[in-house]
Amino acid sequence: MASSWVQPIRANLCSDRICTLHVHIPGDFTKFGDGACDLEPLADCYKTVVKQLAEALGIPSEIIAKPPSPDLWPDHQAKDELGADYELLDLILWGIEHWWTPADIAEELGISQDFVEKIFERWRLNEHKRRPPLTPKLFYRTVGHDFRIPRIFGNCNHANGLR
């Protein structure tokens, strides 16, 4: 029974690119690149939760210990680009998710408000990556906006109810 959700998570944990809140909130992904998929089972998880989940699922320790990297150049690590380790970023992102102000987050964590504001700004500037592409409304129904097929139909054809 659990395999229906465990398999995609295990596959995501063992892949080269794990999409979590650290990817989605700051917008650290490429539109239609590593952000292009049908299912992101870990997208709503913090890095610390993903590590705990990986350990619980028996993912090899060398995969768990591998530092996240966009792999844009040799030895490129995401934490160097973001300016903090993921434990701290988890806490900052939690504050953003719960609509805390940068001042409140900085005070609670005992860190620079300027640093928290940089993370907020990165989140704000990358909102376009978390939304579907804009499509001009030209005709009666526009695919992806008001012309959507409910997921319950699966493969859409006349045999399963659409006419």
Task: Characterize the structure shown.
The chain has 163 residues and is mostly helical. The protein has one domain (3-160): Rossmann fold. The chain is built from 8 helices and no strands. The chain has helices at residues 3-13, 21-24, 47-56, 61-65, 78-82, 86-97, 102-109, 113-125. Helix 6 (86-97) runs antiparallel to helix 7 (102-109) and helix 7 packs across helix 8.
User: What is the first-to-last residue Cα distance?
Assistant: 34 Å
Briefly note the structural class of the backbone: mainly alpha
What's the helix count? 8
CATH superfamily (homologous) name: HUPs
Whole-angstrom Rg: 19 Å
Fraction of residues in helix: 40-55%
Order of helices and strands: HHHHHHHH
Shape: globular
Q: Tell me the domain tally.
A: 1
Largest sheet, in brief, is: none
Mean pLDDT level:
75
Q: Poorly predicted ranges (pLDDT <50, ≥5 residues)?
A: none
Q: What's the total count of β strands?
A: 0
Q: The CATH topology, please?
A: Rossmann fold
CATH architecture: 3-Layer(aba) Sandwich
> What share of the residues does DSSP label as strand, in percent?
under 5%
Summarize the structure.
This protein has helices at residues 3-13, 21-24, 47-56, 61-65, 78-82, 86-97, 102-109, 113-125. With 163 residues, it is mainly α. It has one domain (3-160): Rossmann fold, CATH 3.40.50.620.
